[in-house]
Amino acid sequence: MPPELQSDARVITLERPADVFTEAFLLGNGSLGVTVHGRPGVEEFDLNLDTVWSGGPQGTPRRDVRPETVADLRAAVAAGDHARADRLARELQAESWTEAYQPLGRLRWRWGQDGEPASYRRQLDLASATTRIDAGAESMEAYVSAPDGVLVAVAHGAGEPLVIDVEFDSPHPVDVTSFSSGGVDWLVAVGRAPSRALPNYVAAADAVEYDRAAPGADGTVDAGMGWAVAAAVTSDRRLVATAVSGFRGARERPSADLEALAEEATARVRAALGREPAELRRRHVEDYAALFDRVQLDLSASGTPQATAAERYFDLGRYLLISSSRPGTQAANLQGIWNVDVRPGWSSNYTTNINVEMNYWAAETTALPEMHEPLFDLARDLADAGRSVAAAVYGAEGATTHHNTDIWRFTSPVQGEPQWSNWQFGLAWIAAHLGDRLDFRWSDEFARSVALPVTRAVVEFALDQLVEDAEGKLVVSPSTSPEHPFVAGGELGTVTAGSTLDQELASQALDRYVRLVERLDDSDDLADRCRRALARLRLPAIDDGGRLREWAPPLLPSELDHRHLSHLYGAYPGSRITETATPAEFEAVRRALAYRLEHGGGYTGWSQAWVLCLAARLRDAELAERSIGILVDELSSASLLDLHPHGAWPGGMIFQIDGNLGAVAGMAELLVQSHDGALSLLPTLPASWHAGAASGLRARGGRTVDLEWASGVLASARIHTATDGDLVIEADAGLRPSVVDSAGAAIEAEVAAPAPRGRARWSWPAVAGRTYAIKVG
Predict the structure, then answer these.
(1) Cα(459)–Cα(529) distance, rounded to whole angstroms?
(2) pTM score, two decimals?
(3) Residues in domain Glycosyl hydrolase family 95 catalytic (predicted)?
(4) What is the pLDDT of residue 6?
(5) Which helix (H) or strand (E) holds 592?
(6) Same domain, 84 and 121
């Protein structure tokens, strides 16, 4: 029998099968995604593979742009002619869209008896990455193994032997072959992805097309990659399945050699069948636990339902990141790696104006840096692919990516409204994660081979986007605030100069490039240009209400409840705005967020996750608690998947993984922060988390932190440091910390300044490799 699952915060338990995709449990190994509905007797596994998308390598899709268009656009912006600026911005758009992430199909496995069971329960164990279904006297366990690359499901029953068979159907044209060999029943399915799949919001009779042409002599095609699914059912009631695709790289023609793909999939299943069932499971659990167990959050001592729900949501987010993003896989998209629609919401692509970045906000803080690597791979690819678009569309150096991209590394502005289509700083935002990685753990090799060339491409483009405003300050032009039009002179506008987000991203990229060059003891003219630009760059303004403005000009927001919080980037995920360094802007962020929420903002899962992260940075524990409650109770499904309103979908809601993953980052920031020159302990503790412990959280400078607290007050901490240098800690004022190092020697901690209101700081010289124990009296 499969092991019993414990009814604790690390287990999600439901007492009915999933009626819809958003209620299912998700399994994955970063590449193979499996959606489990929990049907008694007959399970339906929806299969995905991270590399199966519609389309093929597109080169640089764009329309011919007049060389003077960008200059004319900037002139229209400077003149305040927003209608003309809108028209000119549309001339920069490509005559195409990104491609769509695709489902493979549904594997239907009859593992038990028909009929309504006497009892029913399904569970997802976040500690072992397994799901279990109990239906009367029968049970089934399933998991997706990273070491062996397969889905494994094992059924157990009482009484008469189970009747076990397997079927497959797909939304794509597919050939299915069934056969028996050596006492194993096999199913092999092969098909091809669409050669084109338009976004769900584009009305067209031929929205989905398939290329029926035979592959070339080398087995490759222009578009419509091949894929294969292989499944085997054994006499001891096991199902083992996998999938492979013809994806060979973003610039390479994909394979549609279906015979070769079928052989590859079958060989992988055979290899897994060659292992004992217990060994397969052990390899899976050990591989997963080595990642998941790095961080432990235990709020059981709080004894509140809010704390239990928050702990489970935290663990689920880390589980989903491990399951959807591994070294060597594609980055997690809007739905991670799970999707059942040929035209999923927003093509389930990589949306760069918040969503794909939010997927990785928790990677460093919650000790999953390897999971971050697919985003770094995406950044490198886009820095390469985006050079031709920067040159052709803007006449600029460097590289750009607009608000959408896909597996083929589309970087042009797509057709659509300029407020979202024409935002050109997607690569800058993704590249910010390279700097974050180095802040947490410096590596000369990573800095030189990855961060420096990508950041160079970003700043080359950013410098060419900067123009002088009427006061001689430098502003990004053209510029939009993602998806949010403004009101000027009673009319809606979309394009201006110097949106707050673009100014923050430009400032961050320029500053990081300078610091990279200095740290690597390099010197170049580009760094000098960055220094000069930084000295003249316009920083965000504060409006008459004391709120941080969203645009450099005094424009009015058209949607007071807008879901994007782009103008607050400098406070989170950026770190330029802090209470100690920029107190006026810090307060302006607080007021801007309050104003947005007063008018109904935060109504999507990912937007509310951003609210949580900002609440953590603002040290607003009451807002943080409320935000977690909204995420869990209002913006999550029965299986706790994050939801986004979408009128075209049944029930009006669609799954997006970003809210699940962003919430983890926010909860980690409630406990430990390290962006403001100090390692801040329990900066924003919710009232319902009044007692608990956390271990393994990561901080900038190569620090690892363990914490315990009681009655809402820090009791003890352990800090392991991988680097030499002054260690500055921050805690509530009035506490008196005593510090000893790993050798038991007492450490004299000196008071350090400045500290935020109600907090105090202490510092001492830390030595790499040592652990410092802090007790609070």
Answers:
(1) 10
(2) 0.97
(3) 278-671
(4) 44
(5) helix 583-598
(6) no
- Residues in the chain predicted with pLDDT less than 50, given as ranges, are 1-7, 161
Tell me the residue type at 242: T
* Exposure class string for 374-409: b at 16+ Cβ within 10 A, else e: bbbbbbbbbbbbbbbbbbbbbebbbbbbbbbbbbbb
- Reported as half-sphere exposure (CB side, CA atoms, 13 A), residue 29 has a value of 21
pLDDT of residue 162: 53
| 288, 384: one domain | no
Query: What's the token pair of residue 126?
Result: 């976040």
Contact between residue 68 and residue 473 where contact means Cβ atoms under 8 Å apart: no
Q: 520: which 2 tokens?
A: 């690597």
CATH code of 282's domain: 2.70.98.50
Residues in the chain: 777
Residue 269 near residue 242 (C-beta atoms within 8 A): yes
The answer to whether 502 touches 510, Cβ cutoff 8 Å, is no
CATH code at position 81: 1.50.10.10
Q: Could you report the per-residue pLDDT of 132-154, keeping only the tens digit for each?
A: 999 999 999 999 999 999 999 99
> In whole angstroms, what is the distance from residue 111 CA to residue 258 CA?
29
Peptide bond into 3 cis (omega under 30): no
Q: Return the pLDDT at 647.
A: 80
Do 72 and 144 lie in one domain? The reply is: no
* Closest CA relative to residue 102, chosen from 18, 205, 29, 210: 210
Place of tokens 């209400």: 545
Question: Could you tell me the residue range of the domain that residue 197 belongs to?
Answer: 11-55+102-293
